[in-house]
TrEMBL record, chain A:
InterPro entries: DNA_methylase_N6_adenine_CS, rRNA_MeTrfase/Polyamine_Synth, SAM-dependent_MTases_sf, Small_mtfrase_dom. Residues 203-241 are annotated as: Disordered. It comes from Fraxinus pennsylvanica. PANTHER family: RRNA N6-ADENOSINE-METHYLTRANSFERASE METTL5. Residues 44-129 form the Methyltransferase small domain. Residues 205-214, 225-235 have a biased composition (Acidic residues). This is Methyltransferase-like protein 5. Belongs to the methyltransferase superfamily. PrmA family. GO terms for molecular function: nucleic acid binding; rRNA (adenine-N6-)-methyltransferase activity. Pfam families: MTS. It comes from the Eukaryota. Coiled coil: none annotated. Residues 215-224 have a biased composition (Basic and acidic residues).
Automatic annotation (TrEMBL), chain B:
Interacts with TRM9. GO terms for biological process: rRNA (guanine-N7)-methylation; tRNA methylation. It holds the Pfam family Trm112p. This is Uncharacterized protein.
Length: 241, 115
């Protein structure tokens, strides 16, 4: 499937009817979603015939993009029933099979590493600090291959350090910098539309690692505390897109 | 593959199933995928789960040599990806806590005192 075609199909999906700010529900735009999955498949072969999980799937955009690119099995996880129902009807509209589970990602317990690849647009932690890192922590425990994730560019150094040092990622690379367009969704948004710079990350998961749950649990919630630390860091765009 | 995540529960797998309604979805057969997954899943748990929702064709024990049999693969495929619990519950084998399944979506959310 061509990138434009994928983007077009994703553009037809229904999005949040009543977005919930406490969950930082912002739709993942078709532009970003299509590029994330396209890169995962064409540069790394992490989608076709794989088991893919979409963490905090919302209306299912990333997971459905994975299904469109030939993922063998896709599971969408979210805490919000309304979103899951929209996601499920989006899957029906596209004639795709996708499983859904309602859960809190932080408490997710999975036996074995059945999931190959995790894709996610996590809450960036503007409401609850470190929410995105909590997602990343669990994703790296669940995935046998790779985790694709979006994080604010301002937290780049923190994400890299934490993934490698505390979450046992084998590698953590920024594939490209993207503009996340935030439409005027909530009342407190003063401007019509703003762009937020986000990084698309690929974290290589350590399949053989025996997790020491108790020791690592304490690391959850450390949060993006050194946000903004790397203002002025090299913003060079990588050419992987 | 999901296991009970309640605090203090040591053996939360496999979750038991309470059936109200099962649906069948037709899914394209993919042999490579089945081979891949075969080594990752717990066969006994799949056999039990399939039985509970009314599918009894899976053999009690399975080994990788059986993956050469097309008949076996078809049954495995059907049980694994085509049968869905639409309404019912998943039940923690240790605590008995029920996780309801509505419209095919299990609700694994915990109460505050279970985290």
């Amino acid at each position: 499937m061509k990138l434009k075609q994928l983007e077009g199909l994703l553009g037809s999906l229904d999005q949040f009817e009543n977005p919930k700010i406490e969950l930082e529900q912002y739709p993942t735009g078709p532009h970003i979603a299509s590029r994330l999955l396209y890169t995962a498949e064409n540069s790394f072969g992490d989608v076709e015939d794989k088991v893919v999980a979409d963490f905090g799937c919302g209306c299912g955009t990333l997971g459905l993009a994975a299904a469109l690119l030939g993922a063998e099995h896709v599971i969408g996880l979210d805490i919000d029933t309304e979103s899951l129902e929209i996601a499920s009807s989006n899957a029906d509209d596209l004639d795709l099979v996708m499983d859904f589970v309602r859960c809190d990602i932080r408490n997710l317990k999975w036996r074995d590493r059945i999931v190959d690849t995790v894709v996610m647009n996590p809450p960036f932690g503007t409401r609850r600090k470190g929410a995105d890192m909590d997602f990343l922590f669990v994703a790296l425990k669940v995935a046998s291959q790779a985790v694709y994730s979006l994080h604010k560019t301002t937290t780049r150094d923190h994400v890299k350090r934490t993934a490698l040092r505390d979450y046992n990622a084998v590698s953590a690379e920024v594939l490209c910098e993207l503009r996340f367009d935030v439409p005027q969704l909530y009342k407190f948004h003063k401007k019509k539309e703003v762009d937020v710079a986000v990084d698309l990350w690929r974290n290589d998961s350590d399949d053989d690692h025996e997790d020491d749950h108790d020791e690592e649990k304490s690391k959850v919630g450390e949060g993006a505390k050194d946000e903004d630390e790397d203002e002025g860091a090299d913003m060079e765009e990588l050419k992987k897109e | 593959m999901l296991s009970s995540n309640i605090k203090g529960v040591a053996n939360g797998f496999p979750l038991l199933i309470e059936v109200e309604k099962v649906v069948e979805k037709q899914v394209d057969f993919n042999e490579d995928f089945l081979r891949n997954l075969f080594v990752k899943i717990e066969w006994k748990a799949l056999v039990e789960a399939s039985r509970t929702i009314g599918y009894t064709e899976l053999p009690e024990n399975a080994e990788s040599s059986m993956l050469d049999s097309d008949e076996f693969l078809r049954k495995f495929h059907h049980a694994l990806v085509e049968l869905h619990l639409e309404e019912g519950a998943l039940v923690c084998p240790e605590s008995g806590r029920k996780f309801p399944v509505n419209k095919g979506i299990p609700n694994m959310l915990l109460h505050e005192d279970e985290v």
